[in-house]
Write a structure and sequence with these properties.
mainly alpha; 4 helices; elongated
Length: about 160
């Protein structure tokens, strides 16, 4: 019973971390390729598709922070995960809503790539903590001492 309970607890966090890693990496690739895309989009008749992609990326990057990093922080109490996640999300949102209108797409791309690095760091660190908790739970189950939990694994 405990295995399925542990699996469910970490299921949303795991999903959120992997979704966040994928979204951050996709955003970084997009931002690094922006100059080429901006040249190609009008020639292909896709001038407004860039805005739709930005809107989709806002959700794809923001939701995993809520699904993985916030519950991960509440579970592990690692302030570094929370700080990296908040700084990454904040810098991403400011890149889209502040930097882009004031300084243009190139500055937005630079700010978005740096925010992606912060978010990737937060998600990878959160995954490492979750993997440690799962391994600790498996070890306590095999030893039969159900009251023991790994240090830093709350909940």
């Amino acid at each position: 019973m405990r295995d399925s309970k542990e699996g469910r607890r970490f299921g949303w966090i795991r999903f959120g971390d992997y979704a966040g890693i994928a979204a951050s990496a996709l955003c970084m690739v997009h931002c690094l390729a922006t100059p080429l895309l901006m040249i190609a989009f009008p020639m292909l008749g896709l001038a407004h598709e860039h805005d739709a992609f930005h809107n989709m990326m806002l959700a794809a990057i923001s939701l995993p922070v809520l699904l993985a990093l916030l519950p991960g922080y509440l579970r592990h109490r690692d302030r570094t995960v929370l700080v990296l996640g908040v700084l990454g999300l904040g810098s991403f949102l400011s890149a889209v809503f502040i930097v882009s209108p004031l300084y243009g797409e190139t500055a937005e791309a630079v700010a978005a790539v740096s925010s992606g690095v912060l978010l990737l760091g937060a998600h990878f660190r959160n995954r490492r903590h979750c993997n440690r908790c799962v391994k600790a739970a498996e070890q306590t189950d095999t030893k039969g001492s159900k009251g023991v939990s790994a240090a830093g694994c709350r909940g």
